[in-house]
Amino acid sequence: MDHVPFKHKRTTLERAEKFISPDYFTDINLRSRLYTDQAGLESIQHYAAPDRVPYTKAMEGKYQPAHLGQSFGPVWSTHWFRLEVVIPSKWVGKEVHLLWNSGSEALVWCHGEPRQGLSGDNNRISYIISYNLDAADLQQTVYIEMACNHLFGIGNLAIVKTDDEKKTFTLSQAELAVFDRDVFGMILDIEILHDIAKEFPEDSQRGYQALYAVNDIINHLDVRDRSTYRRAQEMAKTFFHERNGQSQHTLYAMGHAHIDTAWLWPYAETIRKCARSWSCTLRLMEKYPEFIFTCSQAQQYAWVKEHYPTLWQEICLFIQKGQFVPVGGTWVEMDGNIPSCEACIRQFLYGQNFFLKEFGCRCKEFWLPDTFGYSAQFPQILRHCGITRFLTQKLSWSLVNKFPHHTFHWEGIDGSSVLAHFPPGDSYEMKGRVGEMLKTVKNFKDKGRSNRSAFLFGYGDGGHGPSEDMLERLQRLQDCDGLPKVKLASPDEFFSSIERENTNLLCRWRGELYLELHNGTYTTWAKVKKYNRQCEVLLQELEAVATMACVRVPDFPYPHEELDRLWKLLLLNQFHDVLPGSSINQVFQDAVGYYQDIERSANALINKAVACCAHSQASEQHEMYVVNTQGYARHELVELPASELAAPAHKKRRAQTNSQLLDGSHLVEVQVPPLCIKPISQCLVKQTEEDLCSQLRLYKEDDHFVLSNGQVRAELDSLGRLVSLTCFDKRTNSNQFILYDDVPLYWDAWDVMDYHLETRQPIVTAIERTRVISDSSNARVSLEFSLKISEESYLRQEIFLDACSPYVGFNTEVTWRENRKFLKVEFPTTVHTTQASYDIQSGFLQRPNHYNTSWDSARFEVCGHKWADLSEHNFGVAVINNCKYGYSAVDRVLRLSLLRSPKSPDPQADMGVHTFSYAIMPHSGNLQEAGVIHAAQSFNCPLRVVTSGADDLISPALFVLDTRQVLVQAVKMAEDRSRTIILRVHEAYGGSTKVKVTTPLPLLAVHPCNGLEEALHDWDQDVGIHFVHGDQQCQFEFTLTAFQIISLRCVM
Ligand SMILES: [Zn+2]
C-alpha cells in the first residue's frame, strides 16, 4: 500500500466540491453522470395565449412551430407549448425525464391535468415522465404552460430594483434524458459528508471522520464503472448510520412553500403559483410517503379548488393521508399590525370554516411565518378562535435586539396566552443542509427548557416548496451522530411534543411581538390603509343594519352570501404584502378595485336594509333617518345632504337646520340611542340658550384665531398651527407638518430607519394663510389654510370645531409627488409621562415615549389604530385619525405619520392626491373616562343619514349596554343561518366590569360562543348570564375582565 500523505483539510474539501460541482470538471466529475443519455423532442409547437387562459381554452389555440433559443414575452404574458415526445425504445425500464428550461415559471400538463411546476430559478427543470419507462409509453403529448415571470416576479431583484418591463424569457433547454438515480444519491452523500467536514468545529472528531470518509469514497469511486458505486454508497451509509445518544436535539422537519398571496406578482398569478408549487409537492408525496407538507391560507386552497379540480382531488387525498396538512386557520396570512380585531376574527372564521367544510378538520396552529410584527391582542384572538399555538420566524429580522426565546408562552393584553415557537434556523426556506441544522441547534435560545425545534424546508416566497434533494438529505440525517435528530412531522406532532415536555419551564413574553424593521409599512400606500379602515367599518355597519332589518321584518333576506364575498375580499387585501403596501403596482390596482366593490355593494345593501326597516306601503312620504350602528348612545352633528334637503318634503326640515356648509349640506345636532334607526325628527336636539351650540365661538385675538365651544378652546396661528389648546398654558406649535428624508438601507417600501429623525424639516411656507370658512352662526366653525411642502407637493387643510365636540378636527388634502420623503404631523404637548397609549385591536397598548434602552429606542415608529394618547394624572391629549396607522411618541411630542414615497417595488406608491382627517382631543381625567375611545370610534364611523319611505314603526335600540366600558364590536346574524344574532363585545378600558344588556328582542336563550360562533358549553359559570324576561324586554348580564372579548349567541 502506498504511503498516504497527511490530509490537508482545505484541499480535501475542495476535492469533494469539484467532484460534484455543476461548474468545474463537468466532463469527468460525478455530476456529469447524472443524465446518461439524451434525446431531442419530436416537435415543439407554440401558442401565444391572450391571457392566463384555462387549459380547455389553451387547447383551442393556434399552435406554430417553436425552437430552442427562441425568446418569449412580454412580461406577464402566457405561452402554451405542445411537445410531441418520442422516447427511444432502448430507454424502456429506465427513469426518463423531460428537461425544460424557459428561464421562467411553467406548469407541465399531461392528459389535461396539471402534473408539475417547473422553474428556471431554482433549477427545477426536470419533469419525471416515468421512474421505469413502459414500452407502451414511448409516444406522448405533453403541454407546457409558460408564465413570463420568475419566481420573484419580473424584476432582477425587484426589492431594490424596479420591474424590468422589457424582459423576455428564452427557451434554453427542451429535451429528454435518462436519469441515474444512483449518481443523484451519491452526489448528495458526498455533499453531506463535505458539509459535515466543513461545518463542524475544528476540534471535532466527527468532522474529521466525515473528511476522511468523503475522501475515501472519492478514491474508491470510478464514475465510469458502475461496479464501484455500491461500495461507495455503503461507505456513506455506514457514516450516516452511526447514531446519536438519546439526549440529542430533535428537528421537526416540515415541508413548506411560502406563497405570497400577492407581492411581486398579481393575485391572478398566485393562483397559478399554487398549482405549480402544490403539484410539485404531490409528486414528491407519491415517492416519499413519510413526507409531510404544511400549507396555509384557505384562499389559496379555494382558488385551486375552483381552477384546478383534478389537482384539488389529489390534494384532498393527501390531506386524508395526513401528508398535506392545512395549517394556520386563516383566510390568508394577514398583516399582524393593521387589521382590526373583528377582521382578524373573520380571518379565522372564514379560514377555519373552509378547512372544516372541505377537509373535516380545523387547524390547531396560527401560522404567520413572514408577517411584520404581531399585535398584543393576538393571543386572545387565537384563543377566542380555538387556537392555542403560534409559529413565526420573522422576528429574527429585527435589526437591533435579538428576541430572547424560540419556544415560550406569549401573553396578550388580556392575560390570555398561547404557546409560541420561532424556528431557530431563522428561515422558513431551509434546504436540509448540514449548516442549517447546526445553526438551528446553536441558535436555539431555550436550551434546558425544551429540546426540539421546527425546521421548515422548501423554496418559498414565490412558492415552489420542497425538492427531492431536500428530502434525500433529511432522510440520510434522521439520526446521524453529531447532528440533531430529524423527524419529518406535522405542526401538531411538533407542538404536542413540546406540550408533553414541562411547559412550566418555558419563559413568558408579555405584549406585542414588535419587529424592529419594516415599520414604514404602517404608512406606505396610504390609500389602501384608508380603504381598509373604511371597509372594516362599513362591513360591521352593514351587518348591524341588516340584523336590525332581520329583526324588524322576519322575512328580510339577510345578505349572507354577499357578506361572505365582501369580507373575503377585505381579508384577501389584508395579506401581508398588500395592506402593508409592499407589493408591485398591479397588485394595488386589483386591491383598490376590490375595495370599491366592497364600498359599492355594502352601501347599497345598507340603504336597502334601512328602507326595509322603514318601509310602509301606505305612505308616500319620505323621511330622513339617522342610523347609529354603534353600541353606545351618541350626541353629535350629522350632515344632511343638500340633495335631500332640496326635496319639497323637507321644506320644514330646512327651516329647522341652522348650519349650512359650503356644498349646501346642513349640519344638525342630534342625539341617537345605540344600535338603532330613527327618524331625524325624533333625534334633533332642540336649541336653547344653554345649549352647546350656542357656546360655539370663532374670533380673532391679535393675529391668532380662537375657536371655542365651551369644552375646547384652540388658538391658531396663520400657518394653521395650534399655539394654544385647552389646558395647555405653554406656547406650542401643534399641528406642525414635518418633512423627513426617508432613505432606508434596503427594503424601500418596508423600512423607515431611525436616522430619518435627524432630518426633521418643519413645513412653514404658506400658500394661503389661515382664513375663516364657517363662522359661529353655524353648528361648526372652521378655518382653512394651505402650505407648500416642496416645489412639487402642497397641502390644504380645514380646521374645524363642532358645537358638541370634544376635539378640534383637521380635514386634510395633500398633493404628494415626493421621492423618499416622509410626511408627519407633530403635536407637542405639556404632558409629563413615561409612556404613550395606542389603540390596537379591541384594546390599547402602552409603549415607552423614551429611548432608555435599545428595546425602547428601536420602537421609534410604531403601529396604532384610531388613536394615540399621552396622559398624566388628570390630563391628557389624544390624537385621533380616520385612516392612519403609524405613530411616534417621544417625551411630550406625539407624531402621526401621514405619507411616505418609496420607489420600490412600486415606483408609483403614494403619488397623487390624498385626503384624510385627524383630530386633537385634549381631556381632563384619564383617556377612558374622557371618552377618547368612543370619540375615535365615532370619528371613524360618522352617523349615517338615509332617506326612505316614512313609517312610525322604527327599530328601537337593538341592544343597550348599561356601561360605556364595554363596546359592541359586532352584531350579525349567525353563520349557521338560524334566527340567532351574534353579539360580540369587548371590555375597552382595561379593567374588569359587569355589564347588563337590555334588548327589545324576545330572546329564547343567550349562550356564550367563540369567534367561530360555536357555543362554549363549559363557559356559563364564568360569564354568568342571567336571563330575564321583562315587559317587552329581555335583560342579561355578565362580567368581563380587562380587555376581554366575549361573543354571544342570542337565539330569537
Ligand atoms: Zn410573505
TrEMBL record:
<dbReference type="GO" id="GO:0046872">
    <property type="term" value="F:metal ion binding"/>
</dbReference>
<dbReference type="GO" id="GO:0006013">
    <property type="term" value="P:mannose metabolic process"/>
</dbReference>
<dbReference type="Pfam" id="PF22907">
    <property type="entry name" value="Ams1-like_1st"/>
</dbReference>
<feature type="domain" description="Glycoside hydrolase family 38 central">
    <location>
        <begin position="516"/>
        <end position="595"/>
    </location>
</feature>
<dbReference type="InterPro" id="IPR037094">
    <property type="entry name" value="Glyco_hydro_38_cen_sf"/>
</dbReference>
<dbReference type="Pfam" id="PF09261">
    <property type="entry name" value="Alpha-mann_mid"/>
</dbReference>
<dbReference type="Pfam" id="PF17677">
    <property type="entry name" value="Glyco_hydro38C2"/>
</dbReference>
<keyword id="KW-0479">Metal-binding</keyword>
<keyword id="KW-0326">Glycosidase</keyword>
<dbReference type="InterPro" id="IPR027291">
    <property type="entry name" value="Glyco_hydro_38_N_sf"/>
</dbReference>
<dbReference type="InterPro" id="IPR011013">
    <property type="entry name" value="Gal_mutarotase_sf_dom"/>
</dbReference>
<dbReference type="Pfam" id="PF01074">
    <property type="entry name" value="Glyco_hydro_38N"/>
</dbReference>
<dbReference type="InterPro" id="IPR054723">
    <property type="entry name" value="Ams1-like_N"/>
</dbReference>
<dbReference type="InterPro" id="IPR000602">
    <property type="entry name" value="Glyco_hydro_38_N"/>
</dbReference>
<dbReference type="InterPro" id="IPR011682">
    <property type="entry name" value="Glyco_hydro_38_C"/>
</dbReference>
<comment type="similarity">
    <text>Belongs to the glycosyl hydrolase 38 family.</text>
</comment>
<dbReference type="Pfam" id="PF07748">
    <property type="entry name" value="Glyco_hydro_38C"/>
</dbReference>
<dbReference type="InterPro" id="IPR011330">
    <property type="entry name" value="Glyco_hydro/deAcase_b/a-brl"/>
</dbReference>
<dbReference type="GO" id="GO:0009313">
    <property type="term" value="P:oligosaccharide catabolic process"/>
</dbReference>
<dbReference type="GO" id="GO:0030246">
    <property type="term" value="F:carbohydrate binding"/>
</dbReference>
<keyword id="KW-0378">Hydrolase</keyword>
<dbReference type="GO" id="GO:0004559">
    <property type="term" value="F:alpha-mannosidase activity"/>
</dbReference>
<dbReference type="InterPro" id="IPR015341">
    <property type="entry name" value="Glyco_hydro_38_cen"/>
</dbReference>
<dbReference type="InterPro" id="IPR041147">
    <property type="entry name" value="GH38_C"/>
</dbReference>
<protein>
    <recommendedName>
        <fullName>alpha-mannosidase</fullName>
        <ecNumber>3.2.1.24</ecNumber>
    </recommendedName>
</protein>
<dbReference type="InterPro" id="IPR028995">
    <property type="entry name" value="Glyco_hydro_57/38_cen_sf"/>
</dbReference>
